[in-house]
Amino acid sequence: ISDQKPLGCWSVKHGQILTCPVVCNFETHEYIAVHDDKVLRIWKDEDINLDKAFKATLSADVYRIHSLPHGGPVVLFRGGAVRTLDVLLEAPQQDIENVISGEVIRWSGAFMEGQQPILIFTTEKDGDFFVYVQKPKLSSLHKYKLEQQESAKPLCFTAHITNQTVTLLCLYSNDSVYQVLIPLQQDTEEKLEEEEKILSKSLLLSLSVSGAVLKGTSLVVLDKDHIAVLGNLAAPGKEPRECLTIWNTKFQTLQTSKELPLGTSGQLWCYEEKFFLIHGKVLTVIMYKCDTSSLAAAVGKLKDSQTPDVSSFMNWNTLEDEELVVSFQSQESVALKAHSRMNLRSRRSTVAEEQPETLSVGQLLLNLKDASTYVLEAELRQLMSKAPTPDLQATIGCVVTALTDRCKRNPKYYPQNFLQQIVETRDLSYSLCPDLMAVALEKKDMHLLQICLERFPDIPEEITYACLKAFLSTSEAHLQSIDVNLDSVVCYIDVEFDNKEVKTEIVENGFSAEMDQDVCDTKMPKESQSRSDGECCPVGPQKAALLNAILHSAYTETFLLPHLKNLPARQAILFLRYLYYLYVKCSEKVNTTLPGIRCPTINQIMDWMCLLLDAHFTVMVMLPEAKELLSNLHKFVRAQVRFYSELSKIEGSLQELQRLNHLRESQTYSIEVLEII
User: Fold this and answer.
1) Where are the domains of the chain?
2) Is residue 479 over pLDDT 70?
3) Which of 49, 96, 173, 472 would bridge with 571, disulfide CB 3.0–4.6 Å?
4) CA 247 to CA 169: how far, in whole Å?
5) Which GO terms describe its biological process (predicted)?
């Protein structure tokens, strides 16, 4: 998520439908999915085609698969039966009993109690709600009936287990959260009881504050004293607003809330102290931390309640700039930290005389907003020199954001050396300082862009394309006057004083100009025949080093291709000529590897050539100046294919020779002649 890159994508065939959420088996690092209710699929990261993955057709419809970190996957069927995945795979067509009759499953959750997995699910029938507690390894099943509530019904459920007791939380339509306690019975094996017990519930929390009522749609448990509820906050005389809220159940108080103006899907997930929710069209991930609940925290009487540290890290990637003023104004110890961009609140303040050590990072940066350049950089250097902390990386991201914000406000200010030093010495990413590369593009800071491309793992394809276009459009004369790291090109580009590469003899693997004269009958001008596109570098060393940084950047073809189609035709041809030059250079080497540091690999070169041809092939075919390049590229690739085809013919003989050499012990000098037939 932090890299903003899809790591894998798998699709079912046309007409097939994924019928329950895909889960990961923590023990085997495999993915498990069910399509068309009964067909089980299991695959790993390296598997490309889902249709060729492991397949098992089950005898009953699956409702949900739950994966436990130390208990393995557990499968819940629509009929209420539960099986561990291991037992199910031993006999996929085994009979699956129906535990429920006429009931519809509304919610399910899996937990570990000691070494035993426990699955809890709720069902509904004719307005009545039932709770089932199953221990699949012990074949234990208990059924309970939920006490009815007049004029209100459950909307969603969540649960947790502590001290052999299941705590089931129910969000009801009357804007209240009820608590149900279910003791885990210590039985070894027991069938479903004939008479279900009635579970009584107690009011845990009323979702109303200062006349406003929260119409909840989803809730999760954070700890024993805090819950998070997603829903619409309706105040008298105002339009309902969708909000994420955190409540203290011990003291019945609303601890913090955040308006979500772009809307959500109504679903909220919580995993390893992170919230996951859909805000607009973006998956938003928010870190949180719940300290021990206290009365002072609940009523906002903590000493630091006026300057919560949350404000320095809180930002919602999907909000507009003017909306960033609204922050999580937490008045107690529930602190949330966004896992994405780190922007500052827009609040004017003078430099405080208080020592920086006593201020939060956000407060310090706000106080430095209008400070002089010297004071700003001195304080930021001091802030970064502190001992490493868990939030140091986020702090550095805030520092870079503070510098780029000042660059935007003051066009004459640009701390080039300071920014380069930070990027070179700190482990940053694009998501921590998203405005940095945009500012560097505006300032035409090619060296900083080169460093970012080599170090940031999560650069959006739009920014990668903008860098490529900037590199190709910058003149060679201007590039010679700026500082660029040439480590990736100095070992394979020889430069004369006139910046032209010294022509050297090229001996490509299997390439012979004579053998391919008949490949293309296009007549070339005599002056162009004297020097092939693959024999001389079409760009200077500075531009070559910058283009190498582009080749090293991570990308997703689906997202990059639309931007690449907007590249001007002449720039596309120049880039393709350089890629062809690199391809020829790689082919000179037996191991197809260019010498030097951070040099492009043959796979990167080939991938970008294919991308560029996919994006501009029609245009290139129509342009006369591209005809010779395409012809040479075609001949060279065809020669390579022929060469490797010939090698494959003698592969068996070469392997046999290698085997004979291992068997024979050459103690004395000898000459042997082996005839390959």
Assistant:
1) 361-443, 541-622, 628-663
2) yes
3) 472
4) 13
5) maturation of SSU-rRNA
